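A protein record pairs a chain with a discrete description of its three-dimensional fold. The following entry can be read in just this way:
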Amino acid sequence: QVQPVESGGGLAQAGGSLRLACVASGTVYSINRMGWYRQAPGNERELVATISSGGSTNYADSVKGRFAISRDSAKNTLYLQMNSLKPEDTGVYYCNVDAQVTMYIRMDYWGKGTLVTVSS
């Protein structure tokens, strides 16, 4: 099982930066992919960025060029560097871990989220 725990959220001014971190504790057979998702009040949860076990990244169009996802596999830690923040980036950011519990069983794990607020 894996329990992702996010940190680094807070208040930032438009144009500022924040760095989120997610520590995925627990044991699994392997991790397929890790990612960041966000949800603004009244909106559906949306993908922000993902990174595969091989290092391949994927970003939402709205954050391309501004955000960067990275990982430290040895520490089971995921990061999201958020630059040039906009008020539209405000929301609760969730860490997701797509893992193989065994060679045959795949499971999805979610953190409780960390709040990011960007003032205009």
Residues 34 and 97 are 5 Å apart (CA to CA). The longest strand covers residues 30-39.
